[in-house]
Amino acid sequence: MIHIIRNSIPNLFTLLNLFFGFLSVMYSALGDYKNAAILILIGMMLDSMDGRIARMLNVESDLGKELDSLADIVTFGVAPAMMAYYSYFSDFGIFGMAISGLFPLFGAYRLARFNINAVKSSQHYFTGVPITAGGGLLTLLTLFHGKMPAIILPIAFFVICYLMVSTIKIPSLKDIPLPKYGIIITLFLGYAIYIVFKKEQHRFPYFIYVAIPLYVAFISYQLVRIKRSGPKK
């Protein structure tokens, strides 16, 4: 029984990642882009935790890897694309729908290519921008597109699509003792904390009050654990 529970813990984090991606899509459909972005932020937190938890518990599995890819397509492919569609591309009708759909398509191709090349690829770089980073960046740009020239969002949209399927080498930062995608997550955290404490607490889901302390505690635990174990030889 304990073994089954241990095996299920990382997959639970992955499934929660997918669930928050779905909720983000719902908030985008309602025109609530701040909450949609916050839910993608929480998905990024969970995505950066599930693999590490699996390694900590020594319960890595092929099922977990497949679930992770499926969750990433929803949370970092479909959800950011829906934000971009409802906030900008919807003005172009069915053409805007077709354009928005490109993002999860490119992201899915990038994930499939990564999965089949994961064994032989270098641990020091990614080939193309990971869908998590691409989706996070598109989410940020969509959230603030009203404060920028309108042309920036569509240009960034196509650039990110290209970068995901490109063969450009992107440093993986795996040697840095922090969860991956730390820069984007840190930007999200800063923004989330700002809006939560800007007398707008009632507008945001209670998930954020649990997710941020949980993630900060997880990072702190990682740093303490690495410090105690000492540098790798």
Automatic annotation (TrEMBL):
Record carries keyword Membrane: yes
Membrane topology: Multi-pass membrane protein
Subcellular location: Endomembrane system
Superkingdom of origin organism: Bacteria
Residue stretches spanning the membrane: 12-30, 94-112, 124-144, 150-168, 180-197, 203-224
Signal peptide (UniProt feature, chain positions): none
A Pfam family per the record: CDP-OH_P_transf
Any single Gene Ontology cellular-component annotation: membrane
Recorded GO MF terms: CDP-diacylglycerol-serine O-phosphatidyltransferase activity
Catalyzed reaction equations: a CDP-1,2-diacyl-sn-glycerol + L-serine = a 1,2-diacyl-sn-glycero-3-phospho-L-serine + CMP + H(+)
PROSITE patterns assigned to the protein according to its UniProt record, in alphabetical order: CDP_ALCOHOL_P_TRANSF
Alphabetical GO biological process terms: phospholipid biosynthetic process
This protein's UniProt keywords: Lipid biosynthesis, Lipid metabolism, Membrane, Phospholipid biosynthesis, Phospholipid metabolism, Transferase, Transmembrane, Transmembrane helix
EC number: 2.7.8.8
Main enzyme class: transferase
UniProt cross-references to InterPro entries, sorted A to Z: CDP-alcohol_PTase-I, CDP-diaglyc--ser_O-PTrfase, CDP-OH_P_trans, CDP-OH_PTrfase_TM_dom, CDP_ALCOHOL_P_TRANSF_CS
PANTHER family reported for this sequence: CDP-DIACYLGLYCEROL--GLYCEROL-3-PHOSPHATE 3-PHOSPHATIDYLTRANSFERASE-RELATED, CDP-DIACYLGLYCEROL--SERINE O-PHOSPHATIDYLTRANSFERASE
Protein family membership: Belongs to the CDP-alcohol phosphatidyltransferase class-I family.
Protein name, per record: CDP-diacylglycerol--serine O-phosphatidyltransferase
